[in-house]
Amino acid sequence: MPTIEDVAKAAGVSASTVSYVLSGKRSISGPTRKRVEQAIADLGYRPHAGARALASSRTNVIGLMVPLRAGVDVSVVMQFVTGVVTRARGADHDVLLLTQDDTGGLERVAAGSMVDAIIVMDVEADDPRVPVLRGLRQPTVLIGLPHDPAGLSCVDLDFEAAGRLAAGHLADAGHREVALVGPPPAVLARHTSYADRVIRGWSATCSARGVAGVVEACETTPDGARRAVDAVLERAPGTTGFFVHNEQALPHVLGRLAERGLASAAGAPVVALCPTAVATAQAVPLTSIDIPGEVIGGVAVDMVLAGLDGERPAETRLLAPVLVERGGATTP
Amino acid sequence: MPTIEDVAKAAGVSASTVSYVLSGKRSISGPTRKRVEQAIADLGYRPHAGARALASSRTNVIGLMVPLRAGVDVSVVMQFVTGVVTRARGADHDVLLLTQDDTGGLERVAAGSMVDAIIVMDVEADDPRVPVLRGLRQPTVLIGLPHDPAGLSCVDLDFEAAGRLAAGHLADAGHREVALVGPPPAVLARHTSYADRVIRGWSATCSARGVAGVVEACETTPDGARRAVDAVLERAPGTTGFFVHNEQALPHVLGRLAERGLASAAGAPVVALCPTAVATAQAVPLTSIDIPGEVIGGVAVDMVLAGLDGERPAETRLLAPVLVERGGATTP
DNA sequence: ATGAAAGCGCTAACAT
DNA sequence: ATGTTAGCGCTTTCAT
Q: Mind telling me which residue stretches traverse the membrane in this protein (chains A, B) (predicted)?
């Protein structure tokens, strides 16, 4: 492997000049730049990442913690990951993947200077990683919103607003009894940030609008979806409108609603909270609120890289939910 | 951040002694080791990854290229990724994630000494990354089997044997006309390694056993599955046995088979090629051949790390497929 | 069993 | 506009 010294020699300049040509941190004359670039190309030179990190305290790597827990839809998770990787590459950064949900991993990559910045996904209300993140010297961004985000930057869809939006939409359509068919029990049990927030917004607006709004967890299996729908109709037989926040169960919930005579091939009295691609892939036209995973992942990178030069105050960014009507009978 | 020098000072030894305590590359007296370990703990010392990489030419990072292409089931992909990350951490390595399907990314991380080794997923028969990989100085393992693997190590399920196994199983059960409902057209069009191999094995055994075996691509949507089943029955109306190699379409294929009277709630004349978890999540009991993604990912790590010390000959490892019968009517 | 010292390849003052 | 030089923090000979 050629070193910067080899390039310098070949171009008839000093190593620092090569370094500056690469970084653009000082002006270089046209001819010199040409010769250096030529030498780099001729030798196929690539700076040694470790040497660079040692000298500059910059790795150009972002750590991404993606816990793969029970009940999460990996295809949705991967949308966030894709957004992170794509945006990171656009900013000349690579991504180190952490999947184990341990605080040790965070400390290892941070204290070991393996990464310049850290993005954490699948945040819980009372996440044990939060205090650890506060102690790191690298900038950090959470995708999600813990109970106490003090001192930490966060970005996410405004899931609470999404809950309100869905409840409001169903109420507007004239429903007096509605139900949230939510994530799997495991997701609820650990108080996953987004799940809690959806329920909060949903319940608040249901109360405010004077509609009865039950909440039912839902396993991702066909059978789980059937049980959830049946449980709702057992508890609140007058339920006419549904809000589904569960990508994997969604088709089966729709199927069961059809079986119970609450939906038809023409449409269902349902608002879904899921990636648009999931909504449009259903057998019936479906009104939905998008979860823009790629966008959020990209914003997370922007935020965390902004924190790289110059301390900046923690900031929470919640993207406004957008409801798109897609025909379907949403009136009772 | 404390350095190795700080630790040495605190323990009253030289930096090299600290280094040797950490690496275990030479014997250290009991008391010295104790003092050093104490100092490390007291100071919360972590070696600087870049400095270490510079001095030792080892990064303890594995590059993992996971192209997220159209038609692949991300949840299956993530099983492989999980296997890689888990096994890598077990061997004290981290994973750098590359999702863009460019050869440039490989060269960047390899030539820049960001990684010790590289694992590549979603290999095509005539993959443009293959020649690039041959030129890298890092050991490489492909998950999948390109047309010409000369000089490269590969690991995968033996998909060709899986194709043979499925065809043989259906033939044994008495089917005379059978059909492979395969991956989406996009996957087939780019000659994804596993897809081609399944078809090869399937067709070979169908011929050998004298059964008619058609092959039909299948979109992942409910409608796509319906069309695929209908197309099969149009081309070969006497078809009684099916081999489904498409996780996402699987439930819809089963549904359509039931609609067409070829399957019942008790079972279907189907062999599925998919992760066992996918097979058992279906509404009917389903005979299947497992795709052990986590295992394969783990083996890939073992192989690639084995290549780290001492050149070793390229090796191709194909895991034997295992068919598990789960009731269901597989007889015609 | 331990220490001293020479790099590893790069960046960023500090020169001129 | 360019060159010189002193590290960055670690590993690993070479000594003893």
A: none
